[in-house]
DNA sequence: GACAGATGAAGGA
DNA sequence: TCCTTCATCTGTC
C-alpha cells in the first residue's frame, strides 16, 4: 500500500448536526467523515469548478439525508480502490429507500450469497461514504442496530430522522 | 495463508 | 427465553 496522500480536495460541510468533512476527487465524492472525526484540513480553496459542483450536490444530499427527507440526486461517487464485492454491497444499499431497512443477511441474499451476512457487515464498515450510502439502514436480523462506522448514536439518529424506530438494543 | 469481523442459526440450560 | 457456540463468507495483512 502506498503512503502518498489520497488525491482530491477536502471540504468542510456545515449541517444542523455538525460539520462533516468530505473528500472530493475529479471523479466524485470519495469520502465522508462525521463531525468530530479526524480529517485533513480543508484544501478546497484551489479546487476546480467540477469539484465545486460535486460539493454542492453533496451538501444538498447530506443535509436532506440528515433531515430525513428523500434526496432525488446524489453526487457521483468515487469508489476507486474498492473491491467488486464492496461495490455490489454499496450499490444494493443505495437501492434501500428512505425509511426502509434491511438485514445484513437480507443484503447477502439479494447478492445471491446467502450466508455472507458477516461479509456484508464488513463491507458496510468499509463504506467511505456513510449517510449517502445508507449503511445505517442495515440492521441485524433480530432488529438490533448491529454496528455503524460513525457510532451507534449516529445510526440511531439517522434512522429516527427517517421515521424508523430501531430496536435500539445494541448488543 | 492466517486472522478478524457491523452476522445468523442452532443447541443447551 | 436467554445465552453460548459454531458455521459461513469475504477482506486485509
Summarize the structure.
This protein has helices at 49-67, 84-94, 104-110, 117-125, 152-161; strands spanning 9-15, 18-25, 28-33, 102-103, 138-139.
List the helices and strands and how they pair.
Blueprint lengths: L8 E7 L2 E8 L2 E6 L15 H19 L16 H11 L7 E2 H7 L6 H9 L12 E2 L12 H10 L10
Parallel strand pairs: 4-5
Antiparallel strand pairs: 1-2, 2-3
Helix pairs in contact: 3-4
The protein binds a DNA duplex (13 and 13 nucleotides) through helix 3 and helix 4.
What is the CATH superfamily classification of the largest domain? Answer: Winged helix-like DNA-binding domain superfamily/Winged helix DNA-binding domain
How many structural domains? 2
Provide mean pLDDT, rounded: 86
Along the chain, the helix and strand elements come as EEEHHEHHEH
CATH architecture term of the largest domain: Orthogonal Bundle
**How many DSSP H or I helices?**
5
CATH class of the largest domain: Mainly Alpha
Largest sheet: 3 strands, antiparallel
Helix fraction, binned, reads 25-40%
Strand order of the largest sheet: 1-2-3
The name CATH uses for the topology of the largest domain is Arc Repressor Mutant, subunit A
Strand content: 5-15%
Low-confidence stretches: 1-5
Distance between the termini: 34 Å
What is the radius of gyration? 16 Å
Class by alpha and beta content: alpha+beta
Amino acid at each position: 500500500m502506498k503512503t502518498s496522500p489520497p488525491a482530491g480536495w477536502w471540504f468542510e460541510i456545515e449541517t444542523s448536526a455538525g460539520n462533516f468533512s468530505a473528500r472530493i476527487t475529479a471523479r466524485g465524492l470519495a469520502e465522508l467523515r462525521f463531525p468530530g472525526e479526524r480529517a485533513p484540513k480543508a484544501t478546497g480553496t484551489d479546487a476546480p469548478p467540477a469539484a465545486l459542483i460535486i460539493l454542492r450536490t453533496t451538501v444538498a444530499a447530506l443535509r436532506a439525508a440528515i433531515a430525513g427527507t428523500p434526496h432525488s440526486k446524489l453526487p457521483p461517487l468515487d469508489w476507486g480502490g474498492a473491491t467488486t464485492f464492496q461495490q455490489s454491497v454499496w450499490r444494493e444499499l443505495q437501492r434501500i429507500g428512505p425509511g426502509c431497512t434491511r438485514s445484513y443477511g437480507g443484503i447477502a441474499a439479494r447478492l445471491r450469497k446467502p450466508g455472507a451476512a458477516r461479509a456484508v457487515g464488513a463491507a458496510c464498515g468499509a463504506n467511505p461514504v456513510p449517510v449517502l450510502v445508507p449503511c445505517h439502514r442495515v440492521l441485524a436480523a433480530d432488529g438490533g442496530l448491529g454496528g455503524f462506522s460513525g457510532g451507534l448514536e449516529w445510526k440511531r439518529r439517522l434512522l429516527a430522522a427517517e421515521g424508523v424506530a430501531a430496536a435500539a438494543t445494541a448488543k
